[in-house]
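Structure in, sequence out. Go:
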């Protein structure tokens, strides 16, 4: 009998899509997955243990090896720079990161302020653009920052564009397309390679058939 694989799943919007993907790949996940407040769910018949974490924390659990594998947005992967392998693009929770602000903004300030939930990623982006900015880290409702004068621009996720539009903001630049990824702890990949490869194989088989 093989060892149990621990999977770190992000709570929130990716969760449902990731569960759907696993079910399409043939994993029998109990109804508990659809409506539960439990943070650890054991699925003995599949030899899997799921832990439910905040999306930004998934790579931390995987890097520390308390989870063998995990599901994380590419945005989180770039921001967190954790020592994990990214083994599969799951092509779910599709969106992109963009720079946005109020219409008519012109780059003229010294050290203009940029608000984001992704301070490392945003700072790196502006550095590459040769622009020096002051980063302001926020944890959500990023679009509020330029409206209230906290920042000149924001770096945030855009999906339908509705949040920007309804708040009278416009997109200036696209930074990078985002989807969710399957990530693996490097030691787990050595110790449990067969089990992990099997999961990657099963998931890759359904990824392209799943609507992003
Ligand atoms: N509007 C969106 N449409 C599609 N995918 C998105 C959208 N916003 C974020 N994502 C993707 O989903 C992941 C998780 O987003 P979610 O909003 O569930 O987490 P969060 O903002 O960290 O959580 P919380 O709102 O609890 O702080 C992000 O890391 C990103 O990859
Ligand atoms: O282009 P849209 O389809 O409008 O989606 C984009 C919005 O979705 C995310 O916010 P979320 O709902 O996670 O709330 P948050 O701002 O609290 O993170 C993101 O931060 C944008 O605000």
């Amino acid at each position: 009998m093989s060892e149990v694989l621990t999977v770190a799943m992000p709570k929130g919007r990716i969760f449902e899509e990731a569960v759907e993907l696993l079910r399409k790949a043939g994993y029998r996940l109990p109804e508990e997955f659809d409506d539960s407040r439990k943070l650890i769910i054991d699925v003995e018949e599949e030899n899997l243990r799921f832990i439910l974490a905040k999306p930004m924390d998934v790579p931390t659990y995987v890097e520390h090896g308390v989870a063998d594998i995990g599901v994380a947005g590419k945005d989180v992967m770039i921001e967190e720079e954790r020592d994990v392998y990214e083994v599969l693009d799951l092509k779910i929770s599709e969106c992109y990161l963009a720079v946005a602000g109020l219409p008519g903004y012109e780059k003229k300030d010294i050290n203009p302020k940029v608000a984001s939930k992704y301070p490392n990623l945003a700072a790196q982006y502006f550095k590459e653009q040769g622009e020096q900015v002051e980063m302001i880290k926020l944890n959500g409702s990023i679009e509020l920052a330029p409206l209230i004068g906290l920042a000149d621009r924001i770096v945030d996720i855009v999906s339908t564009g509705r949040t920007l539009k309804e708040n009278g903001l416009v997109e200036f630049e696209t930074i990078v397309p985002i989807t969710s990824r399957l990530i693996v702890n490097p030691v787990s990949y050595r110790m449990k390679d067969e089990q992990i490869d099997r999961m990657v194989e099963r998931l890759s088989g359904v990824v392209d058939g799943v609507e992003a």
